[in-house]
Specification:
Layout: E1 2-6, E2 9-13, H1 19-25, E3 49-52, E4 59-60, E5 71-73, H2 77-92, H3 101-105, H4 112-120, H5 124-131, H6 138-144, H7 148-152, H8 164-177, E6 192-196, H9 200-211, E7 215-219, H10 228-231, H11 240-252, E8 256-258, H12 269-275, E9 278-281, E10 287-288, E11 301-303, H13 304-312, E12 322-326, H14 330-341, E13 346-351, H15 362-370, E14 374-377, E15 379-387, E16 390-404, E17 410-423, E18 426-429, E19 433-434, E20 465-467, H16 479-497, H17 535-538, H18 551-558, H19 573-578, E21 598-600, E22 604-607, H20 616-623, E23 630-633, E24 640-643, H21 659-663, E25 669-671, H22 675-678, E26 685-692, E27 695-704, E28 707-713, H23 716-719, H24 725-732
Parallel strand pairs: 1-5, 6-7, 6-9, 7-8, 9-20, 11-18, 12-13, 12-18, 13-14
Antiparallel strand pairs: 1-2, 3-4, 3-5, 10-19, 15-16, 16-17, 21-22, 22-25, 23-24, 26-27, 27-28
Helix pairs in contact: 4-5, 4-8, 4-18, 5-8, 6-8, 8-18, 9-16, 13-14
């Protein structure tokens, strides 16, 4: 045995061992992407370098031998810098998406691609479990979310985005009709958390903290939980029966609800903190924003959320026959469509930009127009005019689009001297909402009048008090934004309660260059949408407009997914190493070789753009299987891994053993999913369990035309049996 020191730890290793072998014996991690004990040392990736005392150059630990008294440092500044450069070089030529753009664009980081794929395969139970990893109110959110995920969906480059939001609602509705999925909670921690506000943010934080084992109570000023999902969104878009069922599921996890109590009147933040280990303030934004237009104080002028809340609570104001709504967002759409249902004969939407600039969901804009809503684009109220204190008309200033503003939209500018007057019975101001500041007088507010909350840890200036949602920082946003914040806040509170530090570093992920993606081989399929009630029917009542997807339509729509994200994401060795370091591959970015090609047979899919030329597949095919079905083709930066003469895999001597797939560190080689669905289980394709070393059913063996396709260890014992692959294969054969 040889004695050496690695990172200050005394280590013994057999004579002739490499530094990498010695480190692994001592449970010391050294990254490598091109090494496997089944093949000869190659040293291609350059990641396993270490520093040895007395030796001027860095050593590749996969090949450098140990010597008596050697002192090795695997994490010195010089070593880390070398690995970072090596990773940046590797990633600069790696063209692949770790995560799908839809997931990246979702404020809650929901695995959209994952659950859409599960729906496509008819695995609805698995889909809802995946969704509820991030969203505890999926049936509600699926109905009302403005789906930023769909804005990033690459299917739009073929024809139209996947209908992700409606697919979420479809899976969630099935769950509500069956024995709804309720996750198991961790053992009680004995810690208590108070949440102020029962809207989407508060409910989400309470749900996840309860699952973590904490005791959570939600306090809310209204009659029922739900916040703006209940009191700000009309019944025809979100039936409250659906919301009730989802809130009941949250309650079943163990969350306690207390209604009819108001912050500042029945309790304070400080009083709750005295009784609890942590407090989360999620009070929302319940005050309608002012337009600062003359005449706003007239009778018949209503705030958007005030109007919607009154209707939902059964106290709809008498709005008359001629109604105008000011604003272009989804609240404006909710208000104008609600006014139609209340019997208004003329309903206008006043918006100072054009239809193309409206932030509201296009479907809402179109459906409102079908119901008779009249759009007054490029107009802005100059004044609300009244008589005896009651609204009589609005004077509109005509506008035109000028230069783009900070958001990139062209700013509207008045056309001097061009106005018009419209007679009105009422007007609804749906231009935004804000925090009721006096409710949170104990906390520090920012210059926008919102609670100042740390963007990473959600802490306030009161120890143990956190704040999230519409009441904080930037102010009111969409529900999925609040849910995403609440999920992250739950992790921050859990870390606080456990006396731990929360890692908020954003890990590196690979993204494809959007400009290099070729969609020409994709077949076009129309986007499917659920059937809706006809305009002449729906405008007369508050019944839900959307009838939802049928199972056949849901699966058909889900199958349109391009599956942008890498299926090897959770086991990609390349990504795991990349995320250890703060790397900037763009430093070495050049012209990417256009080698994003799919070459596949019935079982193995090859994506050469993800290849980092580690050589494991080539060497294992040659050295272990004695086949040489694939090799390195070309020279320099354009080198590619390919079968001889660039033939398809099916035209080589490849026996589909899967060893190359097993060793590939990047997802460049992957095994096709759901093989039994692609190849019938008949005399061609068979599966059987094989006993190894007396372990019952320890290995699953798949054969195609008698050839071994894949070998899957079925338990920990067989995985650690100590058998080499050759020995394992000989026993199976």
């Amino acid at each position: 045995m040889v004695n050496l020191t690695i990172n200050g730890k005394a280590v013994q290793a057999p004579e002739g061992s490499t530094i990498l072998d010695a480190a692994r014996l001592a449970d010391i991690y050294i990254p490598t992407l091109c090494y496997d004990k089944a093949v000869e040392v190659y040293g291609a990736c350059g990641l396993c370098v270490v520093e040895a005392q007395g030796i001027p150059k860095l050593l590749r630990s996969c090949s450098a031998k140990v010597s008596e008294g050697m002192v090795v440092n695997t994490e010195s500044e010089r070593v880390v810098q070398s690995r970072k450069i090596a990773m940046e070089l590797l990633m600069s030529a790696h063209d692949g998406d770790c995560v799908a753009p839809c997931q990246l664009n979702c404020p809650a980081k929901t695995d959209c691609q994952g659950y859409v794929g599960l729906i496509a395969n008819g695995e609805y139970d698995a889909a809802i479990k995946l969704i509820k990893n991030k969203i505890p109110l999926p049936a509600s959110i699926g109905r009302v979310c403005p789906h930023p995920c769909e804005k990033a969906c690459r299917r739009k480059n073929v024809e139209e985005p996947i209908n992700i939001a409606q697919l979420k609602a479809f899976a969630a509705d099935l769950d509500l009709k069956a024995d709804s999925y309720i996750p198991a909670c961790m053992p009680s921690t004995g810690k208590t958390v108070a949440v102020i506000g029962g809207g989407p943010a508060g409910l989400t934080a309470a749900y996840y903290l309860t699952i973590m084992g904490h005791s959570v109570t939600v306090y809310d000023m209204m009659d029922q939980m739900g916040g703006m999902l209940r009191y700000g969104i009309p019944q025809y878009r979100l039936p409250k029966e659906v919301l009730d069922k989802e809130i009941a599921i949250i309650e079943k996890t163990g969350v306690k609800f207390v209604n009819h109590v108001k912050l500042g009147k029945d309790f304070t933040v400080a009083s709750l903190k005295e009784k609890n280990d942590a407090v989360i303030v999620a009070v929302g934004a319940w005050k309608s924003s002012s337009m600062r237009t003359p005449g706003e104080d007239l009778e018949g002028v209503y705030g958007g959320i005030d109007f919607l809340r009154a209707v939902i609570q059964g106290n709809a104001p008498a709005i008359g026959e001629k109604v105008a709504i000011c604003g272009g967002g989804n609240t404006a759409m909710d208000a104008c469509r609600t006014a139609v249902r209340l019997g208004a004969k003329e309903v206008y939407v006043i918006y100072r930009r054009t239809r193309n600039e409206m932030p509201a969901d296009k479907l809402e804009i179109d459906e409102a127009e079908e119901e008779g809503v009249i759009y007054k684009f490029l107009t802005n109220p100059l004044s609300f005019n009244g008589e005896n204190g009651k609204l009589k008309s609005v004077t509109l200033q005509h506008m035109e689009l000028g230069e783009p503003d900070a958001s990139g939209r062209r700013s509207p500018v008045p056309i001097e001297g061009k106005t018009e007057e419209i007679p009105l019975d009422s007007v609804i101001l749906a231009i935004g909402q804000k925090l009721v500041a006096e409710d949170v007088s104990e906390l520090t507010l920012n210059n926008r009048g919102n609670i100042e909350s740390d963007p990473d840890f959600f802490t306030t200036d009161m120890e143990g008090v956190f704040a999230i949602g519409d009441a904080t920082n930037r102010g009111a946003s969409i529900a999925i934004e609040a849910i995403g914040e609440a999920d992250r806040c739950a992790k921050a509170v859990d870390a606080f309660l456990n006396g731990q530090e929360l890692d908020t570093r954003v890990p590196y992920i690979s993204k494809r260059d959007e400009n290099t993606i070729d969609y020409s081989d994709r077949q076009k399929h129309d986007r499917l949408t659920p059937n809706v009630l006809p305009p002449e029917v729906r405008k007369k009542n508050f019944d839900e407009v959307s009838l939802g997807f049928t199972e056949d339509k849901a699966r058909e729509e889900a199958k349109r997914c391009l599956e942008c994200g890498c299926r090897e994401y959770f086991k990609c060795k390349l990504l795991k190493v990349a995320q250890r370091y703060d790397i900037m591959p763009e430093r070495f970015q050049g012209v990417m070789p256009q080698k994003y090609t799919h070459d596949e047979n019935a079982f193995i899919e090859r994506n050469t753009a993800k290849c980092i030329l580690c050589g494991l597949c080539v060497r294992s095919c040659r050295e272990v299987m004695n086949l040489s079905s694939i090799g390195l083709l070309g020279r320099g930066f354009t080198t590619d891994v390919s079968p001889a003469f660039a033939l398809p895999l099916d035209q080589t001597n490849c026996n589909n053993c899967g060893l190359c797939v097993q060793l590939c560190p990047t997802g460049s080689l992957t095994e096709k999913f759901a093989l039994e669905k692609q190849v019938p289980l008949d005399e061609q394709y068979t599966e059987e369990f094989v006993d190894i070393n007396g372990n019952r059913s320890s290995v699953l063996v798949s054969r195609y035309n008698g050839k071994i396709l894949r070998v899957i260890p079925n338990d920990e014992i067989s995985r650690n049996s100590g058998l080499s692959r050759d020995e394992l294969m000989s026993k199976i054969k």
